[in-house]
Structure formats: structure tokens, C-alpha cells
Sequence to fold (434 residues):
Amino acid sequence: MKTNSVRSRERSNKLFDSAKKVIPGGVNSPVRAFKSVGGTPIFIDKAKGAYIYDADGNRYVDYIASWGPMIIGHAHDAVLADLTATAQKGTSFGIPTEMETKIASLVTEMAPNVDQIRFVNSGTEACMSAVRLARGFTGREKLIKFSGCYHGHADPFLIEAGSGAVTFGTPNSPGVTKGTAKDTLLARYNNLDNVEQIFKANSDEIAAVIIEPVAGNMGCIPPAKGFLEGLRNLCNDYGALLIFDEVMTGFRLALGGAQECLGINADIVTYGKVIGGGLPVGAFGARKEIMSCLAPEGPVYQAGTLSGNPLAMTSGFSTLSILKGDSDIYSRLNGKTEYLAKNMAAELNEKGVPYRINQLGSMLSLHFCDEDVVDFETAALGNNQLFKSYFHFMLEHGIYLPPSAFESYFLNDALSYNDLDDTSHVFREFLKSI
Ligand SMILES: *Cc1c(COP(=O)(O)O)cnc(C)c1O
Fold:
């Protein structure tokens, strides 16, 4: 086997033990703790290109790319040079800098229906602020969201389906109030009739529909034909705003994100992940009429001490400029992802294991199940036992996959066809082992 087998993970294990003493669960974001696959997380020392290296010196081919941001590969030389130069001039002022206008102009050029954009520090903040803005703009309070879509950890999004026919959400985390939950109405992804029912039952109360235009937090689930068009029409008919959460898809599926890739415009778009190129950045944008409701121009309040931070803006600007300057990058990423999907499918067919592979652009997910994966319910049908063995086998052989069956893979441009072949080779060995 070409790919190195992982030797010891002794140091990672020790680091995790120390971390657990002073950080809840040893991690600063739950999915990192490997809870759904079991075992001990690896601790990272460094990364370059398509590879991450753990604290014991083991190398892994990285298929999560920091959950998306590192689309041009880790520690890209040009981005590092820009960051170093910026850092030397000071790292935060709380006073405007020219770079904020430069990145805002670049993004508004890439997404033609976005006239103005406000920068924040995370995808969560972007989505939370977008919803407040939609409520302020429409003067309405209710929000439709889809089961299985993730929009960060703000209260209105931590809601799960209730048992009623037209679903009223119930909090799925202690600490979220019933009052908040009653304003979030839950719908099923790829089910337009369900959304229409909810609109009918709450006709002039719905401020916005928020959706991942290509879902990436229940595996990768592309929208069914006509689904987003239908949502666009319903929002127009009922006077609600359509919010595309492009935290994952923005600058990943195309420069103009899912909007460009699928040819549908939202009213408000949220960004995160790639927009910061590996530093903490989120953003939300819309046409001028909507954005001018924001403070200090309008009454909807939103602020941030580190928003538009010079290092973060530089990393984002540098990354987006590289994407823009490379007209082949999206077809290259797409080609690599299709190649990997095709090879994995061939191995699975040969072995006769039931599966579905969903793929769009550089997002991909493998589900060990026998039914099309189109929403949260079907995503949950996968064989989790098999997923766990798959995850750990790949990890042991130097392939880092998302540690949950509900997460998408994010391919990066630094991956070579050799890396992809090594991955298929390890995958074949895994299938032999079961
Ligand atoms: C990651 C993600 C978020 C949250 O972004 P954070 O930066 O983690 O707060 C929101 N929406 C989607 C679609 C995401 O994938």
C-alpha cells in the first residue's frame, strides 16, 4: 500500500487527556471529539497543501479542509505572504481599513444580486444577523428552516421537528427557550408541498425561509429539480425573504456560489468558511434596499469589535483573488471529485455493498444505504456501524475523512490524482476487510 500506515498516536492521546481537563470534552467544537465514530481525536501540528500532520508526525490526506475554508490547500504560499505582511502592520484597530472595501467589492462583483455586504466573525453570526435583518425588514417574526440544515448555533436554529403535521419546532438544546422555538417552523428538505402548507397556515407571519441551497450538514444533498425555484416563488407570493445560507457553498461551487451554480437568486446570502480562507470570517449581503436597514444607516442593530479584522480580511481577499484569477479551478475541483466518486462507486459495486454517493462540485458524501438520500430522514438510514469502521480504517491508513456520516467531504485544489488513487486503494483494502 502506497499510503503510510499511521504508527503511534500516543502524543495525540496525551494531548486529548490534557485538553479534557480544561476544555469541555477536550474540544472547542463538538464534532471534533469523534463522538459519532468513537475513538480519540488526532491533534494537528501542521498542514501543507492537501496534507495534515498530527502531533505524532503522521501524515493524512485531508478531505475536510477545515470544513471547507482551505479550498486552495493548506498554508498556501501567496496567502501566507500576504498575511505576514499585514500582521507586521498591526493586527487589529477597531477602525476602518481599505482592505474591508476591497474584499466587499470583490464579493459583490462575484454575486451580482448582492449590492452590499457586512463582515462578521463566523457563519453563525452571519446567519443570526441575516435573520434579524429579515425580521426587521419585513416586520414579521416567523422563520422557516429545514430539518437537517445547519445554520450555526444561534438559538433560532437549534430546533428539531415536533410531532404535529404542520411542525412547530421544539428546542433540541437546553437553554433555547420555548418562545424562540415557536417562531421557527420546520420543513422537510426537497418537499415543496410541505413548505407551501406551512406558508398557508402562517400566511402573513413569515419573515424568511433560510436554507442551504445545497445541503452539506446531512451529508451532501443537492436540491431536487424545481425545489429552489418553488421556494423562490412561494417567498415572492407570500412576501417573505429567501435566505441562502452559502456558508459552505459560497466560493466553493462557483465564484458566485450556489446562486450562480444553480441559477437562482436569494434575497439575503450568508457566507463563511471559504470567505475567510482559514481565518474566522462570516458575512451577509443583500440588495441595497435590505442592507440599508442595518445600523448605522438603519434601525436593525448589528456590530462586532473584531469584524473586518485586517488579518481575517487579508486571508479572505487573498484566497478569493486566487480563486478569481484561476479560471480552471472549479472544473479542476469538480473533475477530481467526480474521479474519486467514480472510483469509490466501482469498488462498492464490485463488493456489492449498498450505497449512495451524492456529489455536487467539490462536495461529496458516501452513504451506506439502499435508498436515495434526499433529506434528513433518508440521510439517517445509513449503516452507522459500517461508517464507523470505514472512518477508522481510512484514518489508520492516513486518510482523514469527516468524523460523522452527516458531514460532506470538501476537496481542495492541492489534492493530486495520486492522492485520489491512494485513497481509492485504501478504500478497496477497507472493503476487503469487511
Ligand atoms: C459551518 C456552517 C455554519 C456555521 O458557521 P460557523 O463559522 O461554524 O459559525 C452555518 N451554516 C452552514 C451551512 C455551515 O456549513
In short: The first helix runs from residue 10 to 22. The pocket of pyridoxal-5'-phosphate is lined by residues 122-124, 127, 150-152, 212, 216-217, 245, 247-248, 272, 282 (CB under 6 Å). The mean pLDDT is 95.
